[in-house]
Amino acid sequence: MESEAAILALAALAQPTRLETFRLLVRHEPAGLPAGEIADALAVPANTMSAHLGVLSRAGLISSERRSRSIIYRADLSRLQALVLFLLKDCCQGRADLCEPLLAELAPCRA
To answer: Positive or negative CA dihedral for 42, 44, 47, 53?
Structure first.
């Protein structure tokens, strides 16, 4: 991931509604959620949610797919992985023991 792409993704997540939207979509992988359900779950007006979804989409953090009359949004987990790897690329200066607490926090995700 290039610095510009990372900055765009981080900027998109640097707003409470967009961060919660992204986290909600991550929890609903792989099925995703329709835009209306996202708006309802976060108690955000539909037009406001549409703007937030647009920002997340332009940052490459989510994708959308039309299904009949609904648009289903999904978190792009490969983009999330690239962002996290970009942030941690120089972590620990080659000393894996310094990163162990971080990796331990991720262990429940693998279960």
So the answer is: negative
DSSP H helix total and E strand total for the chain: 6, 3
**pLDDT tens digit string along 35-80?**
999 999 999 999 999 999 999 999 999 999 998 888 999 999 999 9
Q: Cα torsion at 44, 32, 16, 37 (round to 10°)?
A: 10
Express each pLDDT in 11-23 by its tens digit. Answer: 999 999 999 999 9
Reported in sequence order, the residue ranges of the chain that DSSP labels E, i.e. its strands, are 33-34, 62-67, 70-75
State whether the Cα torsion 96-98-104-106 is positive or negative: negative
Integer CA distances (angstroms), 110 to 32, 54, 103, in order: 20, 31, 11
Closest among 69, 71, 83, 84 to 25, alpha carbons compared: 71
Whether the model clears a pTM of 0.90, i.e. scores above it, the answer is no
For the chain, domains (ranges, CATH) are 3-110 (1.10.10.10)
